[in-house]
Amino acid sequence: MSMSGVQASAFQAAGGFPPSASYLLFVGFTVAISFLWGAWALWSCYRGWATGNLDRSVAAPSVIRILLLSMILTAFVLS
Q1: What is the pTM of this model?
Q2: At a CB cut-off of 8 Å and minimum separation 6, what does 54 contact?
Q3: Rounded to whole angstroms, how far apart are CA atoms 28 and 34?
Q4: Model confidence over 15-31: pLDDT tens digits?
Q5: CA–CA distance from 49 to each of 45, 62, 65 (Å)?
Q6: Cys bridge to 3: 8, 18, 51, 68, which one at CB 3.0-4.6 A?
């Protein structure tokens, strides 16, 4: 549901910025947090695999799941 012209101008007057800026802030924050989580999860998988604490049969599917989840979340948020 989108805002009417009156609602958008009232939002602009009260907030000092257009509603689209808050949408971009939310999308940017969500994508940034999900990529940071993905990087942390991939780094943790690598550390576990490199030290021998995580078997390759567990690490590989975990990496695939992390990448797939990041791609799906990005597609949902950016669409």
Answers
A1: 0.76
A2: 45, 48
A3: 10
A4: 888 888 888 899 999 99
A5: 6, 11, 16
A6: 8
